[in-house]
Write a structure and sequence with these properties.
Length: 267
Amino acid sequence: MRPKTSFKALLLQEGILRFELSWTAVSYRQKNIKISKDFFDTEYRTIDEKTYEKYYIESWINDIYDSLMEVGEAMRNEYTFSEFLKTLYSWVLTKILYSGARLIRRPFYIRGKSSLASYQGLTTGHNCRFDLPGKNLKTLYFGKDCEIGDNVHIAAYEKVSIGDNCLMASKIFISDTSHGNYSGGVQSSPSEIPNDRPLITKPVIIGDNVWIGENVCILFGVTIGNGCIIGANSVVNRDLQDNIIAVGIPARVIKQYNASSNQWEKI
């Protein structure tokens, strides 16, 4: 259970959660943070400076306390003390740079940050990399509460949309982009330098509650339905319907969930 407010106030007094609040900062936050319904009857309300500052500090303490408890849970999971410090450092930067996310572990590489459209509750592992076009073109969408492992690389130059509650292991590559065109009318020549070939993009859509295993590669133009499981080391180059298990290179369907029997049945 969360301690009483007096304990949180003590933390603040001791300097553990100390920070300066100018009205400039308050004004900025007032425009960009949705106030908790615990404090207000409506999601947004015009309030005076002192009242806003009081509730703003209270909500920040609540948020920090909850997150510190998560970090404490990491210690109980037998992480080393150095890993605990790294996680705490990552959490601080997450709250500063990606306030809607749960935890963006460092190091984290992103090109074209303005193209990251949504990431509510996102958790990442170490060394994740997002390649985006920037220029405020929204191309990468995470649903709520997604968790991705280490070394996940996502290239989104047209659109990559990932649904709610998706789980990804490590070393996964997802791309909506290809260097060159190798089907249809005008195709790229092997004599062309690969990096000089035109970028061909097709959206990648991943549904809700999808579990993607280690070393999976998802290619441009693919749609993966809700509830799918993609086995380790698979290459997905075609659409997959809802509630199936697919494995292999290229990925093929081996099981489908039967809602009547509550069983995964072989195909």
